[in-house]
Write a structure and sequence with these properties.
This protein has 415 residues and is α/β, with parallel strands linked by helices. It has two domains: 195 residues, Response regulator (Rossmann fold); 156 residues, Rossmann fold. The protein is built from 17 helices and 15 strands. The strands form four sheets. It has a seven-stranded mixed sheet. A three-stranded parallel sheet has the order 3-4-5, covered by helices on one side. A hairpin with a 6-residue loop joins strand 12 and strand 13. Helix 4 crosses helix 15 and helix 11 crosses helix 13. It starts with a helix and ends in an 11-residue tail after the last helix.
Length: 415
């Protein structure tokens, strides 16, 4: 008699004998008490990866991209049997882009949900707040978006890794474009928090090192809606090149207003990185803008094109660079688990140091010296192309990782 039919048999019998009841109870007890092989039980346990990210507030567009990319990545991986025979479970909660909220969410994931692996945090201040707590939590964090160069320099901690391109890398690419162009004088506008300041500082030093004039810089608070006074100051600088380090609604507002004031007819508009969500929001105002890209969806390699197709089929929009960087971070995490055949923090940290993978940007190396991933960097221009509803990122140049990445534990370049 099977357990599935045992309950039905009991309902059919009008007055079961005491002997049959005892026999049935004995069989049930034996079945429940039978030991399950440990390997089978563990194989069913999911590997939890925390993806706390901004799903509301001014950085919500970042969190939405990472959340969607994580969902696609895990769905495909689990369909193939997961990793080391176990499925991946992504845990996502809204941090609002607030460092204090992010720290609280990560601590809850560790202490209440048994999660020791993290990626996807949306902005650098969150990462700068979480990193010092990683050793206390015995947790591993592989960044997919934090750009502040200090995280792999003077703020580096053993359990932090950055698989994404950093702000110095974006500034390096744009500075090379400036060096090779006819631009003579550069002005910069940055968002007034860690990422904005770090990117502008790096570009300023690179521009001066390249023997071009740096005309000045201004920083706008997050949430700025009216950029007219900033645009007036930029125009008055006499610069023929403008470096823009803004994101989200701030970026959209600035580009739209700058275009309406014909600012980009007076000077070249260049961005630390160009976000496709901005391009979709401002439309033709983005045409002609130049900048670095941490990953453009038009990149022509099999993994990149596969992900772009899967993302578009799932959500009806093309993925942005934040989605691509999340994909690469997941590749590093999953490959470390596959190599170590476990999820303990120390083992994963050892595996990640010096690891080489093939991912969405081709060959990528994780430096042991500062836990910074070294991969190609891209210079792109927003162009209109038939078949696309919005301008798309056209790759103008690809720079090797050794040129793009700063020296180990550094945010500046020497050559």
């Amino acid at each position: 008699m099977s357990l599935a039919n045992w309950g039905d048999d009991m309902k059919i019998a009008k007055r079961p004998s005491r002997r049959s009841v005892l026999r049935g109870a004995t069989m049930l007890a034996a079945t429940v008490a039978a030991p399950v092989p440990l390997r089978t039980a563990l194989a069913a346990d999911p590997i939890k990866i925390g993806v706390p990210c901004a799903l509301s507030g001014p950085f919500a567009h970042l969190g939405l991209q990472t959340k969607r990319a994580a969902e696609i990545y895990v769905k495909e991986l689990n369909a193939k049997g997961g990793v080391i025979g176990r499925p991946i479970e992504v845990i996502t909660e809204d941090t609002q882009g607030n460092p204090a909220v992010c720290v609280r969410k990560v601590q809850e994931f560790v202490e209440r949900r048994g999660c020791n692996i993290f990626t996807g945090l949306s902005v650098s201040p969150e990462s700068l707040a979480v990193a010092p707590r990683l050793q206390e939590w015995n947790a591993l964090y592989v960044s997919s978006g934090a750009g502040d160069g200090r995280l792999t320099a003077d703020a580096l901690v053993p359990n932090f890794f950055r698989s994404n391109a950093s702000s110095p890398m974006g500034a390096r690419i744009v500075s090379r474009y400036i060096e090779d162009s006819k631009i003579t004088k550069v002005f910069a506008i940055g968002q007034d928090y860690a990422w904005g300041h770090n990117s502008v500082d790096v570009l300023e030093s690179e521009v001066k090192r390249g023997k071009k004039k740096f005309a000045g810089k201004i920083f706008s608070p997050t949430g700025t809606k009216d950029f007219s006074s900033y645009i007036a100051k930029i125009r008055a600088s006499g610069a023929d090149g403008l470096y823009i380090v803004l994101t989200g609604d701030d970026n959209n507002a600035f580009v739209t207003q700058a275009a309406s004031y014909h600012l980009f007819e007076q000077m070249d508009g260049m961005m630390e990185f160009i976000e496709y969500v901005m391009v979709q929001a401002v439309g033709d105002a983005a045409v002609g803008l130049i900048g670095s890209s941490r990953w453009p969806f038009t990149l022509d390699n099999p993994i990149s094109q596969h992900f772009t197709k899967a993302f578009y089929q799932a959500y009806g929009v093309y993925p942005d660079l934040h989605a691509g960087e999340l994909y690469q971070a997941m590749d590093f995490i999953v490959d470390a688990i596959r190599r170590t055949k476990e999820t303990k923090t120390e083992a994963l940290r050892t595996a990640l140091e010096g690891m080489d993978i093939s991912s969405i940007k081709g060959k990528v190396h994780m430096r042991k010296c500062d836990h910074q991933a070294v991969s190609d960097g891209y210079l792109i221009r927003c162009v209109k192309q038939d078949g696309y509803p919005y301008p798309i990122p056209k790759v103008l140049a690809t720079y090797p990782g050794d040129f793009v990445a700063p020296p180990c534990n550094s945010t500046t370049y020497h050559t």
